[in-house]
């Protein structure tokens, strides 16, 4: 295995470990790091409020787990 191949393997395995630690859940993968200020862990489809972080599925890409 060449030096470049070993380097790519190390970078890839480190990135994969971070994804597994931060984003992987029981049924799928989260769409945003839970430590991010926009993270909202649930998605309520019928929320028609004026809360721009939750209303009308706005937070669909801000944390809920995708199956």
From TrEMBL:
GO terms for molecular function: 4-alpha-glucanotransferase activity; amylo-alpha-1,6-glucosidase activity. It holds the Pfam family GDE_C. InterPro entries: AGL/Gdb1 (IPR010401), GDE_C (IPR032790). GO terms for biological process: glycogen catabolic process. Residues 14-67 form the Glycogen debranching enzyme C-terminal domain. PANTHER family: GLYCOGEN DEBRANCHING ENZYME. This is Glycogen debranching enzyme C-terminal domain-containing protein. It comes from Rotaria sordida. The lineage of its organism: Eukaryota, Metazoa, Spiralia, Gnathifera, Rotifera.
């Amino acid at each position: 295995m060449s030096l470049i191949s070993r380097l790519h393997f190390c970078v890839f395995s480190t990135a994969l470990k971070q994804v597994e630690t931060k984003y992987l859940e029981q049924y799928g993968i989260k769409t945003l790091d839970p430590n991010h200020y926009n993270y909202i862990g649930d998605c309520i489809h019928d929320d028609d409020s004026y809360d721009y972080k939750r209303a009308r599925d706005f937070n669909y890409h801000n944390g809920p787990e995708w199956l």
